Amino acid sequence: MPESGPLESTCSWVMNEQYVREVKLRRERVSSFDKYPFSLPAVRNLHTLALHPAVTFIVGENGSGKSTLLEAIAVAWGFNPEGGTKNFQFQTRGSHSTLHGLLLLVKGIKRPKDGFFLRAESFFNLATDIERMDAEPADAPLIIDSYGGRSLHEQSHGESFFALMMNRFGGHGFYVLDEPEAALSPSRQLAMMARIHQLVQARSQFVIATHSPILMAYPNALLYQITPEGLTRIDYQQTEHYIVAKRFLTNTDAELHRLLDY
Predict the structure, then answer these.
(1) Residue 101's CB: how many other CB atoms inside 10 A?
(2) Is pTM, for the whole model, over 0.90?
């Protein structure tokens, strides 16, 4: 368990009431670790992945398997592979892996009242499915009302992401976010971090795959970096994202000279 710190008093509930404690790979059921997705660095050496009761980050290079692992966790929980809640059933392309069937989610005693899988690359499809369902006759409020009442297609990608978190996420939830910063400016990423904190205080748990050195600075979060050897716990200031961003921002001219040779 990560060391206690400034968030201890605001989210002490989570120590005994987290929704998912661990993610285990049933390795004895894997036919070959030389085949996708089990050949990915994030999966090949996976045994047990302990989750933080508030926020767990998974970071790594493109192609390392972080999105594949996050998707499998979401599907193992019961979320739609392309995003949404357990109630979404749309499928535009059946591209998700079989990994979810070999994952065991070790759950806590408490059950969340809310949940969502945000997948940046297929969020457009989710917005389309909301419009399709709202166009069908139903004796119920419009689904879009839970997302702020304005069509997600009538907003920028970043605005729609932020509308989702501000309106649809209600707390007491288990939220799986795959690169939520993809369409957000730095200032919006800071606002997203503040919203994540509000939801943590409202008894929520997050598992997030990200490239954002802003988001992964969230205090006391558990950080896993994917290396060729697998998932490794790492401190924020040891991540490549932090090191590269700091080096560039504190010595911009020298970095530009090095990169562009001018």
Answers:
(1) 11
(2) no
